[in-house]
Write a structure and sequence with these properties.
By secondary structure, the protein is mainly alpha-helical. 52% of the residues lie in helices and 0% in strands. It folds into 2 domains: 7-90, no CATH class; 105-148, no CATH class. Helix 2 runs antiparallel to helix 3, helix 2 (43-55) packs across helix 4 (72-85) and helix 3 packs across helix 4. The chain is elongated.
């Protein structure tokens, strides 16, 4: 099997970080049309250069959005993300659920009560009881992590 080129290795790295531009063909800025430093596949680099153009070169937002293949709202979102977090703010947000969406207050109260009544009860044993009571499937590790989180203060 042939060894991947440097460009392929870079694209694979960008993909693994969710920083591979989904539409590099939309980037029409002249710097990104040349071979070399500017890479239209590098989403963070494209966004940064777009922001630099609007801020330093005073390119109008509409024109920058067109040249870099983004919508005007995307330019404003990138600007806010950069102001808030710098370069890491230009990375796409991670997809998927955030937090323990299955282990809500009712499930946690049930788990704690079950653990109190069965002092030797392990998380693996709770999986079936949670499924029977709430109709949801959870992994024992999810239960263990949820039990380590501090309880919410009420009142």
């Amino acid at each position: 099997m042939p060894k991947p080129s440097a460009a392929e290795r870079k694209r694979n790295a960008l993909r693994s970080l969710s920083a591979l531009h989904p539409h590099p063909e939309r980037v029409r800025d002249e710097l990104f049309q040349q071979e070399g430093f500017f890479d239209p596949h590098d989403l963070v680099q494209v966004k940064y250069e777009m922001l630099r153009r609007t801020r330093v070169d005073h390119t109008p937002i509409r024109r920058a959005a067109q040249e870099f293949g983004f919508s005007r709202p995307s330019v404003y979102q990138a600007r806010a993300a950069f102001a808030r977090a710098g370069l890491p703010g230009l990375l796409p947000a991670k997809r998927g659920p955030r937090g323990a969406h299955k282990m809500d207050d009712a499930v946690m109260a049930f788990v704690r009560e079950e653990r109190r009544s069965d002092a030797g009860g392990r998380a693996a044993g709770l999986v079936e009881r949670i499924r029977a009571r709430f109709g949801i499937g959870v992994h024992p590790r999810t239960i263990e992590r949820a039990l380590r989180r501090p309880e919410k203060k009420t009142g």
